[in-house]
Amino acid sequence: xxxxxxxxxxxxxxxxxxxxxxxxxxxxxxxxxxxxxxxxxxxxxxxxxxxxxxxxxxxxxxxxxxxxxxxxxxxxxxxxxxxxxxxxxxxxxxxxxxxxxxxxxxxxxxxxxxxxxxxxxxxxxxxxxxxxxxxxxxxxxxxxxxxxxxxxxxxxxxxxxxxxxxxxxxxxxxxxxxxxxxxxxxxxxxxxxxxxxxxxxxxxxxxxxxxxxxxxxxxxxxxxxxxxxxxxxxxxxxxxxxxxxxxxxxxxxxxxxxxxxxxxxxxxxxxxxxxxxxxxxxxxxxxxxxxxxxxxxxxxxxxxxxxxxxxxxxxxxxxxxxxxxxxxxxxxxxxxxxxxxxxxxxxxxx
Amino acid sequence: xxxxxxxxxxxxxxxxxxxxxxxxxxxxxxxxxxxxxxxxxxxxxxxxxxxxxxxxxxxxxxxxxxxxxxxxxxxxxxxxxxxxxxxxxxxxxxxxxxxxxxxxxxxxxxxxxxxxxxxxxxxxxxxxxxxxxxxxxxxxxxxxxxxxxxxxxxxxxxxxxxxxxxxxxxxxxxxxxxxxxxxxxxxxxxxxxxxxxxxxxxxxxxxxxxxxxxxxxxxxxxxxxxxxxxxxxxxxxxxxxxxxxxxxxxxxxxxxxxxxxxxxxxxxxxxxxxxxxxxxxxxxxxxxxxxxxxxxxxxxxxxxxxxxxxxxxxxxxxxxxxxxxxxxxxxxxxxxxxxxxxxxxxxxxx
Lengths: 350, 350
Prior knowledge:
2 copies of one chain form a homodimer. By secondary structure, chain A is of the alpha/beta class. Chain A has 2 domains: about 20-225, Alpha-Beta Barrel (TIM Barrel), CATH 3.20.20.10; about 230-315, Lyase, Ornithine Decarboxylase, Chain A, domain 1. Helix content of chain A is about 30%, strand content about 25%. Chain A has 11 helices and 18 strands. In chain A, strands 1, 2, 11, 12, 13, 14, 15, 16, 17 and 18 form a 10-stranded mixed β-sheet that branches. An 8-stranded parallel β-sheet of chain A has the order 3-10-9-8-7-6-5-4. In chain A, β9, α8 (about 205) and β10 (about 215-220) form a beta-alpha-beta unit. The first copy, chain A, is elongated, with a radius of gyration of 22 Å. The two termini of chain A are about 35 Å apart. At the A-B interface, α5, β11 and α10 of A face α5, β11 and α10 of B.
């Protein structure tokens, strides 16, 4: 349904091309289906329950989110299967976690005995069972235990009366991490574990998933909108980028310099090699610097220059942090706004 | 009034040390008073009307904010003198600007004839007068006209029946920009202008204000909380940093690596030379990388290491973008929460 023309929106504003987004949703689902892997979109990219329901209707088995507060928003919105691939620590947070666990099929992860003990205590307090995956460390060196410790953690989960061992968690599940996955699975099998799920993730992991057959499930977030980072990584084309931040030229202080009305509070400070985003109408331009509310652009390589008052559209470097800066974003087809979404889980960091 | 112990707050959470903040407010006001300059705090750092009123009670003559939507929030909260040092472009935005102009003493800036024409049309539509400063370009090369064009813009404002010439705007008003300011003032005086206000700004501009006597008013934001950027610039001491982001250690994957429960969605991706913030309890630690919801820390230089579940406090690299990520922040004294502030202008980018 057409709600209004895009031109009626004030800038800066985040637009989502609905056809591109729906194509991205369908394509990733087909990719996972073809590989025989379950697909679990990570909602960190959009934080919008309505969009999660589109992903579920397309065939996703559930969602992943990173924080309990995000899970609360999506459980309230009727999502029935939620994974939080995160060490949940702290008694109050664990109590809230158990609240989510009561209303949906919840799975969390752990990479440390202290985390498992906290989960067990919470499950005891709430007289409930809780599904726990073991977080396997990878080459990005974030969280995660090495294979031998992963088996110890799995034993600790199995030894608990309250916890269920729910498989292995890996991020990212790229080919570079396959030896770790294989080592952990071998040790788990030798220790008598049935590993029902190996949940992998990352847009790179999804692209390489055919070569990591051990992975049974994929968590991907950015694919739904794409951005300059996925573009630079060769994981999408410009025509697959659904997010465009609509901005106005507010200053033309000299021949080559163009200033737009959005900065790091609009498109976040993330930077790719060549700048802070791609200006669709002027691909040769470079957003070389961001103030909080200004984008500083170098147009010296462009044949044409915009004037004060002109509108441009920017594909940001990292979509996930952009959505998180805005109270609402707009679904568009051509020149029309067809959806207005509240970013319901924006700012949910706890 | 003690509302609750700090330990009752879930992490990650943004704390403001009330005594440090009040000391910062008083010190900057004293600094401006001693120099005989008006002080106009920029609210971009806190975005909280209650705090703006503390700044006004301490002696500030009004506030500055960067966007019309921010001005709306502060005008609604009773702030009577608001400056928007920004080119306001676009008919709908200009109509909202005139709404703010109706309820307070508003001043905007312009660096282009097209911007002035838009302001004039809006003032005509609303049958109102509007105060306009001329934005003078500086060595940071953001917006702003060179001195000779500044005089042309001032003439255009003077020639309008609706607009009042309100002086010269400079950012930052550091010593390096003094020759530009002097050149513009000389040309303006020669053209018969009375320049009632030279509004300078920036925390560096404030520090150097004694050496730029032409500046009559200072706009500063970050001074109220301070951060690693102002610390690195030698503009404050650690004991002047009022903002601490309280976080929990959620993973200790190896001997030197510590993972905290906040990333670029909690403390923003800004980076100083040495990392993404200063961990107060472990000043030798380095936050070398941020995921969206994890801080990756290298503790190899530290004698002691925290355990999973331990609490640490991080002074962020750039406070202004941190506040903008949170729905509320907490004013604390020692171990007690005494204020809960809604970040009323969070996300106000339009």
